[in-house]
Amino acid sequence: MAASLDGVFPATLQEKVKNSKLLVVGAGGIGCEILKNLVLSGFPEIEIIDLDTIDLSNLNRQFLFHREHVGKSKSQVARESALQFNPDVKIKAYHDSIMATDYGVNFFKKFDVVLNALDNRAARNHVNRMCLNAEVPLIESGTAGYNGQVELIKKGLTQCYECTPKATQKSFPGCTIRNTPSEPIHCIVWAKHLFNQLFGETVDDEDISPDVADPEAKGEVDENSKIDAEKAADEKVPGDGNVVRVNTRQWAKDNHYDAQTLFNKFFYDDIKYLLSMSNLWKTRKPPTPIKWDSLLLKQDETDQSYSRQYHKIWSLAECAAVFADCLKKLKLNLEKMDQGDSLVWDKDDQPAMDFVAACANIRGYIFEIGRKSRFEIKSMAGNIIPAIATTNAITAGVVVLHTFKVLQNQLDKCKSVYMRLRPNPRNQLLIPEKILTAPNKNCYVCAAEPAIHLRIDTKRVHIKEFRDEVLIKTLNMVNPDVIVDAKGVVVISSEEGETECNESKLMSEMDIVDGVLLKCDDFFQNYELSIIIVHIDAERDEPLFEVIADPNQLKPKKEETVKTSEKENGKTDDVSDGPSTSKKSKINEVLDDDDDLCLIEDDDDHNVSKPADKSATEEVTEATDKLQVKSPEKPIATKRKTTTVDDDITEILDSDEEDGPTQSKRTKRSEPDEKGVINID
């Protein structure tokens, strides 16, 4: 192909391409485009890995796949299709997870460049760490709708994928989901929990039944009423409903998954019981229970066309009919499985998706919450940002251009590139960064001596939760070992069964208290981390832990106030903020667990120099109207400074001697809009 034809590439690049070996991680929307580009460019040896199989919904943008490939391995089919473009290329495909133990640091060292085309954060974090340890350049990419991003990750030269915090998945207090939903997403989460309770893998935190006692009646009940509530939980609830604490799935099986019985339980009896908790409805509008034999549920059973009208909001009667139909189908699917196995909810499984859509809308009707179409619910429940084939194609093209630069050791030219739907003030759709972003000195992954402070309630968190929720889920380790540094006591071992006896103990019971230093080691990732424990007494519905990479974040608020005042007076100490993550961090985006690359919008107020003598009113007007402002005749090319116009608008003054987006820090805004920080999938 291109590399085999003299004159297409410069001679040096042509030689580099011919002798290179690349790894593509992911064979989805971007991965297919990257593989096609590499094959046509003449790269002789490529390996590609992906765990997924092809789904029908992939075919509109992953063009290497066709209808006859549905259900087959993505990586294997991508290989076969790509070889039709250039049969001379050697392509090796793996149908496996890149996080499997077969793909350690030595595996990554085989490649000249690694190209990421993933759709989830856990795998991205893992590949990031592997490439840092193997000292192999990584080109990270992602898209979300019409937005795209490509960036180079090189140890010691650029920031790594984990140098900046990524928005965590939105979580909701369990009592809100069970008792007082107020948004469509609350109803959707409840419906997904109901699916798991009836057909899937049950989790204690996903209980869908109302609380036994009024959660807002604390301080108003005496010991006798508490005892009565406990008795009600152990026995039965009189009069107000049949809310009995039994296994939901077993109860449904005993009732043969009868639609009327289940409907009345979840949408009438449970709601009646909620109404008995008077404190819940002092400031809220009470829900309206619905019975199966209600006139609202009468439906012409001969007309079933509504079930395929995915953009239509189903009526209450249509939702009830879908509910009954899905119960039958899901019951049959469950009966076909081995004893002890369960169904897994999948947005592309029609009865599973229909069930969640119907239940969410019925609950929305009961609580007078706006209902959604099946299409909208699928997007919210499946954490989907619509994928655009053109965005994937352009992003993949930039990835390969970056690959050419890396092979030629032109790393200084591999600046991050952002793609936008609309041109910026310089009429650019592809917006390059001004400079390479340097590593974050407080990063707990790529710093010389990675360390964090962990604010955690040591009296409530067990060792097993510490391992699963903090080390694996939040800090992205695979098989961690943990010892108490001062005593050399092994708390967690990667060897199976060695420290199983510790799992049920609280951290405080293992003498892991305020000020204790833990040494963590993940042999597979070749990753070591020091954790300094900071004990907190977490209140109800507050995060049980928070990871803090920057020690400055631990300073008292008084000191922070002083620093703020100093900055306002012109003293600007440059302290970069490190990542800070928590189990239940509150963000504005909803259920985005495939989230991934941070994009900073390139607006006029970020890049355009303005005369220093302009009034605050004029500056606010310009920022509001988004007008382009011409640079002064004599540009100020001295130090960069910030001018606070009011509480919400901060203007950045900079020289305009160089084109491209102004390098700026990521800053938190109280009410982020579409021109703030965007998460990429």
Automatic annotation (TrEMBL):
Pathway: Protein modification; protein sumoylation
Protein name: SUMO-activating enzyme subunit
Protein family (similarity comment): Belongs to the ubiquitin-activating E1 family.
Annotated GO CC locations: cytoplasm; SUMO activating enzyme complex
Binding site residues for ATP: 26-31, 50, 58-61, 74, 97-98, 119-124
Entry's localization field: Nucleus
Keyword Metal-binding: yes
Keywords: ATP-binding, Metal-binding, Nucleotide-binding, Nucleus, Transferase, Ubl conjugation pathway, Zinc
Sequence ranges assigned to domain Ubiquitin/SUMO-activating enzyme ubiquitin-like in this UniProt record: 454-539
Pfam family, one: UBA_E1_SCCH
Active site positions, chain numbering: C175 (glycyl thioester intermediate)
Start and end residues of each Ubiquitin-activating enzyme SCCH domain: 181-294
Lineage of the species this protein comes from: Eukaryota, Metazoa, Ecdysozoa, Arthropoda, Hexapoda
Gene name for this UniProt entry: 101894526
Signal peptide: none
InterPro entries: ThiF/MoeB/HesA (IPR045886), ThiF_NAD_FAD-bd (IPR000594), UAE_UbL_dom (IPR028077), Ub-E1_IAD_1 (IPR042449), Ub_act_enz_dom_a_sf (IPR023318), Uba2 (IPR030661), UBA_E1_SCCH (IPR019572), Ubiquitin-activating_enz (IPR035985)
Domain THIF-type NAD/FAD binding fold residue range list: 9-420
Ligand binding (Zn(2+)): C160, C163, C443, C446
Family matches, as SUPFAM superfamilies: Activating enzymes of the ubiquitin-like proteins (SSF69572)
One GO BP annotation of this record: protein sumoylation
Subunit and interaction comment: Heterodimer.
Biased amino acid composition, Basic and acidic residues: 215-238, 556-574, 606-633, 669-681
